[in-house]
């Protein structure tokens, strides 16, 4: 196999990056990209990352022609068009919108989880905005409640954009927010996750210890 022609700017702690890495594993494309780790935070922008990516998004993918595409949703879609197996995002019909909406719910869990992480890990404790933090946690709780109530059978049916996104969101809750103890009130989600986190793609992309 020739050297990878694409570079994925990545941080192994990011659940958004993990979504893309899981897709690459699931579709046998992991050799196509070189990983470049960037330890960017909202208060530590990295100049090199902003080239062609003015928002400094992670993940960002530099293509062979030097252009950059982002964010995780776009990169996921990009690679989903480049393998010969079943698409991981349905191409059309109501399934497309439903699976993308479930994936968006998972992305929202990640958004809220990451901003809570930044607020609690980076901001001085006397500046923490507790009401705002609690509303972010409430978003996570509502989204988990919906997945538990309405989506288990759908998640179990395919390991596609929806299931990969939810699995990465739950993995991030375990990683950064074990205090939320999401399993205790979401037993069906917990049982589903216990199975999918044993997939080689999930094992190979676990966040750092
Ligand atoms: C984290 O360390 O939790 C993190 C790093 C990069 C992106 C998102 C989260």
UniProtKB/TrEMBL annotation:
<feature type="domain" description="GST N-terminal">
    <location>
        <begin position="4"/>
        <end position="87"/>
    </location>
</feature>
<dbReference type="InterPro" id="IPR036282">
    <property type="entry name" value="Glutathione-S-Trfase_C_sf"/>
</dbReference>
<keyword id="KW-0808">Transferase</keyword>
<dbReference type="InterPro" id="IPR004045">
    <property type="entry name" value="Glutathione_S-Trfase_N"/>
</dbReference>
<protein>
    <submittedName>
        <fullName>Glutathione S-transferase</fullName>
    </submittedName>
</protein>
<dbReference type="InterPro" id="IPR036249">
    <property type="entry name" value="Thioredoxin-like_sf"/>
</dbReference>
<dbReference type="Pfam" id="PF13417">
    <property type="entry name" value="GST_N_3"/>
</dbReference>
<dbReference type="GO" id="GO:0005737">
    <property type="term" value="C:cytoplasm"/>
</dbReference>
<dbReference type="GO" id="GO:0016740">
    <property type="term" value="F:transferase activity"/>
</dbReference>
<dbReference type="Pfam" id="PF13410">
    <property type="entry name" value="GST_C_2"/>
</dbReference>
<dbReference type="InterPro" id="IPR050983">
    <property type="entry name" value="GST_Omega/HSP26"/>
</dbReference>
